[in-house]
Records
---
Amino acid sequence: MKLSAYDRIFKPKQYVLESGRTVQERRSRLPLVLVILIIATVVAGEVTGFSFSTLVRRISFFFVMLRDMVPPDWSYMPRVWQPLMDTIKMSLLGSFIGAVLCIPFSVVCASNLVKNRFITGFFKLFYSVVRTLPTLVIALIATYIFGLGTFAGTVAIAVFTFAYCGKILYEQIETADMGSHEALEALGVGRLSAIRYAIWPQVLPQFISTVLFCFEGNVRYASILGYVGAGGLGLILNERIGWMEYARVGMILLALFVTVIIIESISSYFRSKLT
Amino acid sequence: METRLTYAETLSKEPKRWITTLVIVLAGLILFSWSASALQSNSTGGSGLSVAKGIIIGILHPTPSLLLTLGSGGVPYLLFETIAIAFLGTLVGAVLALPFAFLGASNIVPRPVALVVRLAVMAVRTIPAFVYGLMFIMVTGPGAFAGLLTMSTCSIGMLSKMFTESIEELDRGILESLDAAGCNTFDKIRYGILPQLMPSFSSTLIYRFDMNLRDASVLGLVGAGGIGAPLMFAMNSYRWNDVGAILLGLIILVLIVEWISSKLRTKLMKGE
């Protein structure tokens, strides 16, 4: 049995079996993990100024805004429609563009299709870096370049979808069964056709399901983007909060809630069909 | 007696899928053109390219002084604060998510109750992060504490969903055999339930910590501490070199944490 540093300090437990053999049980790592967690919690609590007493004393203020949101201002609904549709369109188009764009990049990333370690590594790093860029930052930069409006939001969503779906797609391609691909190549089929007929059908259902899942999340996320001026629900949401018209805020959130439920049920129906 | 088909005949007997394909493609095209109608922007007057160039050049030349100062305004300290917010946010979020998770699991509570709880979780998830941020600032005042609470509230949705999934996958057979061996309730929880839940729970938590670190920039919008606030501030005042420094720090941190977290999670999955 290989002993790690931890096992050398805390010796494994020895058992003598009836047959005379001895077996060892490694000591649990739990105490070590707990100690690390407790230290981290205390340090983080100090840094962030976490205080239970403030929380208990003032938590009622949390509900001030929420209370004003009920009942929602129904008469405001006609003016929610347009931004709501904008949000849905933004996420639909953004998801679509991102999903289509990520296909060639993912193929280049997959180490079973491209043998050059340098190329796959480079594009994987590229995906990782794009994924770490916060969506809001992309949206804000997009508004500087493309001007305020839904176009900037669409770009931000497309970039996010590109990075998210792309990573999952290349992982799927890497775990795909290579047998039929090899067979096609042996028959003299070109590289692209081999990918098209052997790999693509394997990953397609899962890929579409991933894109749908991403789309669900994007609808919710698109509502934040308006905060930086990238169009959609966030724009009026931010405006109404600024005017402290919480009943209207409540209406916007209710509309978003219902939309998200509808979209999630449609998309999860299709996803269950796909897998 | 069936006769052997020639290859051409086999091909011609291939199921005709083109109608389904056509319908899907048409639906996709219609949705695409419908959503394309939303594309509008207040044009910047054709200066977009030069603006983009300026931004990219700025970001690629990060301010070195900002990256290397260890004081409370420098990137290292801000990142440290962000880690602290994300860590405690995940922890508090987990505590808040546990009741939702158990009440939403259909093998523990009756189905209607589970559905209602899940609907409630969806409602919690619908409210955007910055709205929560504003609510919590009323409670604690601006600062890292508000950011932490916002983060934990935003984590509830995903955490409780993943927790519920692993609770619903609990293997009842183990509990039954423990029963048969004469274990009491405490033993059953300790040896039957905890070992089944711990790996998936901790894996979920590590993943969520990873995500929270990424989402930290959202908090900056409402002045709720961490690296987000200086980032948004620098962007709004067009200090692209500072933006570059902060983004560089954030990207490096997230890449390191992602690497560690995926290592840990594969270990957990293998059950080591």
Note: DSSP finds twelve helices and two strands in chain A.
---
Amino acid sequence: MKNNTYMCLLRSSTGECEQPSASEMELQYAKYQAWQQKFADNILDMGNKLGSAGSVVRQESASDGPYIELKEIIGGYMMLTAATLDEAITVIKESPMVANQGTSIEIREICTP
Amino acid sequence: MSQTDRVEHLFRHEYGKLVALLLRRFGVQHLDAIEDAVQWAMAQALDFWCRDSIPDAPSAWLYRVAYRHLISEFRTTQRRNSLITEHLSTLASEVIELEEASFAGEMSDSMLRMMFITGSDAIPIESQLVFTLKSLCGFSIREIALRLFITEANVYKRFSRAKAQLKTQTLELDMLSNDQMLARLPSVHRVLYLLFTEGYLSSHNDTAIRRDLCEEAIRLTSLLAASNVGDVPAGYALLALMHFHLARISTRQDEFGSLLLLEQQDRHKWNKQQITLAMTFLAQSANGDIISRYHVEASIAAEHCLSPSFSQTPWEKIVASYELLHNIAPSALHRLNQAIATAEWKGPEAGLAVLKSTDFPEWLGRSYHWYTVYSDLLLRSGEITLGRKYADLAIATAPTDSIKRLLSKRLLER
């Protein structure tokens, strides 16, 4: 079966939250590892962080900042491969990133002609 | 080795090392900025290592990132501080020249010095304990509160007290002489002992949480014993004591999480390797003329671990050991234990006689420990009415449900 490629955009609200401790980060890392191993076949590229500086260019003008909404920024992206959108959703739903408060992940298929 | 194995406890263990190393370099007065920088470096690591892979030298990676962050913080917030100019000039060369081997050595050395810095008489022991957990073991205020059964506000207060006190000590970590470190060694041992017993004796239901503290204590105690200053008989005795106890930890609860008494524990499940290791440390501790409380406590733990069954326990030796322990470190708690061992050796009436010959302080005389022992010995010697009365008191004052269940099983269903 032909697999589709999906781009996942990580959005997080910019609210102040308490810094996790070393032992909490250790747990977080273990969760990431487990997730990456489980879905190794689906994860094409863990992607990267996106800088917070940027600009939105429209016909009329360029506006400051990459903000979708005032309080939400796209913090990073990653690439998945999956047979269906549902499968991609399953992979993302189990990821530790979703568990972070204030984080939402948008999944979009990359269309190839 | 898989990635996960390499990283198990890496964050937590590196945290203390990095904080210690940076404190040594920049001074205790920058503790807050240093903790922030280390935390920041770890957040970066979490992000980059998840996307990519762990670098070959994760410690050096973390150190570089934390160091740079700290320097840039200093640059923006404390321009006038002469410290920066002093350190900035060496920054470039230093970071590049880091060699993993000598680096690792310097790290553990800094950890040790940190333990001694906090071992000052001016800092209350409970504040020392919290400081150790926070800055050397990488636990958050919330996690410490959970592990020590105190409120977060209380943890914060203790931590602040230690921090405030440390900042008034102008002495640098390198300025502690060998003699000063030796003088503080008992206090460092005491904190490690407390750290272990908090984990081991706590009535927390979650075994993993209790294990954490025990393992942290063993890690730091091992580090200490491997150093010049800490290479003393009492240090090995402390290590032996910890390993003897930890060998039994998994048998202290049944499959439903209820606490089990020594008599009911499955001795086959005690960790034999760990007992052997403990014996090795105990042999190493049998040196010199000073017998510490850790020696005596380790020997009591050893008698239990080596005895093939509860009934074959050499109670007379244990009674003698508690007598000795009480002479070295007088505590009514030791007398209470002695009463229990005496009852096993010579019968409940002899145990009661030990209780009656001792003045128990109020904090113990009104605790469920004392009520339990007293009730148990009364019931066993046939004084049912009085025994029941104290059994009720014991159950009413027990701190957790699992202990209440254990007590009513032992005292009332006989």
Note: The mean pLDDT of chain B is 83.
---
Amino acid sequence: MKQKFFHNPFRMIISLALIFGSIGIASAASPIALPDPNRIRYKPLSFEPPRTQRLRLENGLVLYILPDKELPLVKIKVVVRTGSMYDPAGREGLAELTAIMMKTGGIAGMSGNAVDETLESMAATFDTTVNRDSGILSFSVLKKDLDRGFDLFSRILTQPSFEEMKLTLAKDLKLEELRRIIDDPQKLAFREFGRLMHEGSPRGRVTTSASIRSIQRDDLLLCHKLFYHPENVMISISGDIDIPEAKLLIERYLGGWSSSERRPETPPLPRQQDGGIYFLTKDVPQSIAIFGWLAPAKRDAQFYPFKVLDFIVGSGGFRSRIFQEIRTHLGLAYSTGSFYKAKGDYGLFGAYALTKSASTVKVVSRIEKILREIGQKPVSTEELEGAKKAILNSFIFSFTSAEKIASQQLMIEYEDLSEDYLLTYRPKIEKVNAADIRDAAIGLSPERAILLIVGNEDVYREVASIFGKVSRIEATF
Amino acid sequence: MRNNSSFLRLRRFRKLQFTPHAVLTTLGILFFLLLLLLPSPLFPYELAEKVQTFTLKNGIRLLVLERHLSPTVAIYIRYRAGAVDETDGKTGTAHLLEHMMFKGTRTIGTRNYAAEKKIMIRLERVGTALDREKAKGKAARSPLVARLTDQLTKLQKRQRRLILSNEIDRLYSENGAVGLNASTGQDLTTYQVSIPANRIELWARIEADRMVHPVFREFYTERDVVMEERRQRSESDPEGKLLESYLAAAFISHPYRRPILGWPSDMRYLDIAYMTKYFRDMHAPNNTVIAMVGDLQPSTALKIVEKYFSRIPAQKLASPPITEEPRQSGERRVEVIFDAEPQMILGYHKPPPPVFDDYLFDMIESILTKGRTSRLFKILVQEQGLAETIQASNGVPGSRYPNQFVIFATPRHPHTLGELEQAIDREIERLQREPISESELEKVKNQIRADFIRGLDSNAGLAGMLSYYEALLGDYRYLAEYTTTIDRITADDILQAARTYLTPENRTVATLTKKR
């Protein structure tokens, strides 16, 4: 039914309705000849993104530089091959605390408070994020303070001192954050979902109050030594800076940076788990259901069909299948859809909905049905072409700032994608056909999914009676 | 993939967002940006020069700013209409309407509008009768409810065959649009999107059409969606719940006391008739601001906007009565019992922009909680370890009317809300006692200047700011003038503001404590 709307008979009806409608509303607004929105002609768009300069210093440090003089700002992003997956057992949270403490714990010859004062007096910003398999430090400084600011930033990067007092504070704040996770149903659900998806691997371990308490200053020093050195990081610089200027700056402040340390082995990639239904009890009026599967890596050929699949299933806006069914048609959720998170070496795919307790079982069943179908019936031409058009036409938004372009180039090397990744991205999407999508969907049966439901006791009883084998889990903090 | 990133991703799908929180966040950001225009007098001047403004005959105000980094354009439409303009008993209408504006028009989203219209007339009649019966609660006649429900379902099924559901979203998506979103605040309603620069005409085609002829199809299911939104943002979320109770206590008569999402009993029975009236009254071209920022020529932009929007007739603007908030004459305290760790909100009444005193609270906000060297962060979080987080925000929950300066705080175990409150009090007293030092004043101004520059980084950010001030205050150049005003602020001004407004009798305190 849905596929038919491009057919001519309907189009004729639409235009007739339009004429009719216009006459009918003449008193409210003068009639304007509204063109068919599907047939507006657009001039072609041509655009060549600016080229990013790649440099490699003698100590192995890789830089991507893209000048952009619009605003008097310089942005520096350091991507580090670190992450919670390297945290030693019993010391979960170490990689994150290390990054936080680099920011707050002082540097050789300067206290943490003095660093704060200096950074804020020049209105620089500095943020740290540590993910499961990477870390990112973002620094932004006004052009006029560039030299002073970068000097300080480079010392934060290379000589953090990890003051004991600040470590106590950072640990206390982390403990409070852990104490409060359970108050936020979404945070709680996604924490447990991530754990279940990586069960049995260091990637699946979560930070707890016990692991935070056991972390000592020496652990931070070692973590810094192992992960923060020229061959383990890449830096992008964008903004009001020339390439020679950037090179000079980096050589002056980071040219002497070296290390003989090598980071520990990367833990093996997650393996597809046996499917299972997991239930976490929380006394809330709205349940959260999340399905998850392993999915193609960015380096896989199936990455492209899977992108299109994800768009059609649940991430492509209101028309995508899950959204259309669960939200628009049934009115059973405000937040619902799918996500596909692909990295260089592996990917995750998930589908989710937040729905009132009484409709939990219904929503879960409908999502299961949608996922079963995507692997069984070929997608319609309209859906396929619509999804491809959307992905292709919005590609231009990957290039809306120098910072975006420079860090995108950096990530291509970081994730070890082919050099022509961006160039071939669009043609590869264009080539995707219905058969490719069905092939990509082969693993997506609901039986193979990790399904986590967070909900109240009544929901548990209903889920258990209808779906059979449900494992109850408890979150540890 | 970390929890956080999934969480954000999830949020991305909350396309039709609003919430007390989103509003707070949005306003926080706006004020933050507004603060930012600082002493560099050059830039605001340039901005004012570079923005081209046009007013159509029907009153639509158009602001255009050229920016050629990439061939894309960000467009904001803002109506000076929000939750404050609803009548009591119909709270949530503005927000539900914002959802309904995505349901298409007479020419978008339908296979046969004439046939649909006939069904919709009956649907509304049945829906209204059903609501009326259900509203009787226990006295509702269940056979009648069942019969009407059955009729409603059948009519919905029939209409569905004629609908191309979510067609507006499809048109935008397939043409490469990103950031398609809308938001409802107490003051304004906003529709925004970023689109490849060659496709502006599609935007004009869709928006001009839904500005006049939206069709409220799928009304009753969307009303259910909004109930789920409330469950998500308020009933399952301690912060949302606390803010709702806080505002209801801080304001006793002004509509800022009501949640934007609405009170549940109103939301359950919102009706098409009142929504249509609200739409007609408030969504007038002479109540509309459009801002376009990106790779486009102002003359081309104007031509397209004129082609599609100029024939919408201007109309007399309705001005629903807004009850004034009487002067507060004593502290108010409210408690929420919830299954969550404790937190608190504490705040004071104050005037809105462009009153001079409002600028002073932008400064006080930064002095108290901007950055790691701000007073409350340094003392409460770092030195005394009493707080986990602390954040001040000026301009809650809106800025068209006198509003609030608030402080959100979470204590760090085992410290209590009482200890936290006392510590905040000490810092408020200090603001009233000691003038702020020159160096601290200078630091805050520096931060503000830099953050302003950072705020200019995206087309969407710029379009958002320009349209916000134009719609709220009638002139985007408020931004340019802002800098000179901030420049004039002295330590004594801040001292006086603290003494005038930050008094116990002008204060409301809301605490959330754990269920025992």
Note: Residues 113-134 of chain B form the longest helix (22 residues).
---
Amino acid sequence: MPLTTEQESRHLEKRHRKARIFAIFCAAITWSSVLLLAVLLYQVSIEGFRWLDWQFISSFPSRFPERAGIKSALVGTIWLISLVALISIPVGVSTALYLEEFAGKGKISKIIEVNIANLAGVPSIVYGILGLAIFVRFFALERSLISGALTMSLLILPVIIIASREAIKTVPQGIRNAAYSLGATKWQTTWAHVLPASFPGIMTGVILALSRSIGETAPLIMIGAMTFVAFLPEGPMDSFTAMPIQIYNWVSRPQEEFHELAAAGIIVLLAVLLVMNATAIFIRNRTERRMK
Amino acid sequence: MSQFPDSTLAEQNLQMSKKSVLELRNVNIFYSDNQAVNDVSFNIRRNKITAIIGPSGCGKSTLLRSLNRMNDFVDGARVEGELIFGNENLYGKEVDAVEVRRRIGMVFQKPNPFPKSIYNNISWGPLINGFNGSTDELVERSLKQAALWEEVKDRLHESALNLSGGQQQRLCIARALAMEPEVLLMDEPCSALDPISTARIEDLLFELKSSYTIVIVTHNMQQAARISDYTAFMEMGDLIEFNVTKKIFTRPAMKRTEEYVTGRFG
């Protein structure tokens, strides 16, 4: 006797077909976005590669395209991202830990939670205005690196907090119970077990957030990062420029050469982003392996 | 002699000649507005195994968790009445819950080793509590007590997550024993294990009882009958009967107990 009747097998065939169609649909969508990205990269590469040399990386901006470089913007971006990481990671992770582990589950926590989720969706230009009013004017930090870093930190904090909270939530309750039952305090439990166990997830959120901030232009324009900087910042109080601003500036010039310089700048920006992400993923995977 | 500094519960209280380690006096436990345990009183005897049995939802796990203040972490949980440990009420104002949990250890239903090495699983508790002896010796002694040493002595620095379920549960027991608790609470410690692992843990409990006081919640009546000296039978939050295990299983005083242990309900 056959395993299925004819009617059943026809029905089964239909179900399999549906599954195949869905798989093809998903693959098509995935590959079309990959393709789009590839076209973009190709376009940028053929425009910019001609200009990409050591001279480009080690020169200050200039009004002559052949002498112009991205040095001050590159150094500015590295400064900015380092400061943003220094500010936003401790603040974001501490906030997430507080909300998940220490704060009660009352109405106030709920209100804070909803508001953080809303803040993640606020346009970056709004953060720029806020940064201008608070850091540049009120705290009189001027148009400095620290103003930019604080503004940028505000912008990415919701992302870090939300991702960290999700990561902390996935730590099994059994681990906390085990620690408490050995006479551990809340702090000892959190520091020794909850934080290490959620570290990989927190890192993922941090990578996403920092990647977003490295490409942000609007808030930096708002707080007044300069577009023509012929010196390197030496401390957090110095004025600065960053790569997206430099690129924006070059794109908005009429000469064709500057557009190509912008493409070269984009390649450098992508390279920095890639190195940064690779490092973070490397750290994350190493701790993940150690946990197993 | 305690190996740990800064004890808040007076140590000498426990050297009392009294046979009871813990006395429950009119204990009521609430979750917000629901009462989970009603007016329960009985004594837990030193160096004996006390089993708490009863149908699902009878409040036996809730009661067990109140004995080392693990209910403190449940929102809305409230304990009334007295739980006398030594001369002090576990829920007294001056008693620190962290100190209570150091002295009254717990093993949970699902094995929950830390995602760290076997060695660190054992040594972490004592170290954070200010242990200053040799951790090597402590790890070896604890693993031997939990009958796990022979199986893991060559891979102490491997992850505890590579162990089998039964081994993980014995590791959790060893981890609790490393704190030298005066009472060891076990919340259905064998329910996630196969019969062979269960038998090993039962043998282990038998050996441990010479030096520890054990309270075990179990679903398995044969298990309670096999290993325990005293049995408390609970139903709907009430303590129906508390007595020597033999009596509970052969000549219970209450009709409900008899019906439950003979398998007529539950």
Note: The radius of gyration of chain B is 18 Å.
